[in-house]
Amino acid sequence: MNENNLTKEMHESGEMYLETILVLSQMKPVVRSIDICDYMNFSKPSVSRAVGKLKADGYIEVDGSGYIVLTETGRQIAERIYDRHNTLQSIFMTIGVDEQTAEDDACKLEHYLSDTTYEALKKYFKV
Q1: pLDDT (tens digit, 9 = 90+) per residue, 12-22?
Q2: What is the maximal distance between C-alpha atoms in the chain?
């Protein structure tokens, strides 16, 4: 399956939320909306709207206690974006970009690079 098919309807903001949920789930035993607010420095209403959309679209599930978990599709997208982020940051640092700039640029580019370009970069830099 082409990875772009997973996100054909997913916008950058949705990908960022899924990636954040993945990262938080690696740091905490449970993820709640307030954790997302704190991590992303977004307002509660903004996060609430995004969580509602992600839930309606089948990317996350929210239980009765408000705990958020990724569905299989949501996890696939989150892992894809997180992998791109880490790989791009590593490549940028390899060529001499400072860590913060590499982090910021990776966060921007992870959503827009084609699979072809991304795979070529990975191959070239042996990442």
Answers
A1: 899 999 999 99
A2: 47
Residue 24 is part of which domain span? 9-76
Beta strands in the chain (DSSP E): 60-62, 68-70
Per residue in 30-84, pLDDT tens? 999 999 999 999 999 999 999 999 999 999 999 999 999 999 999 999 999 999 9
Say if 2 falls within a structural domain.
no
pTM higher than 0.90: no
How many CB atoms are closer than 10 A to CB 105?
Answer: 15
Q: Are 107 and 90 part of one and the same domain? A: yes
Phi/psi-derived region of residue 58, left when phi > 0, alpha when psi is between -120 and 50, beta in every other case: left
Same domain, 64 and 104: no
Going by C-alpha positions, the residue among 23, 25, 6, 3 that lies closest to residue 73 is 6
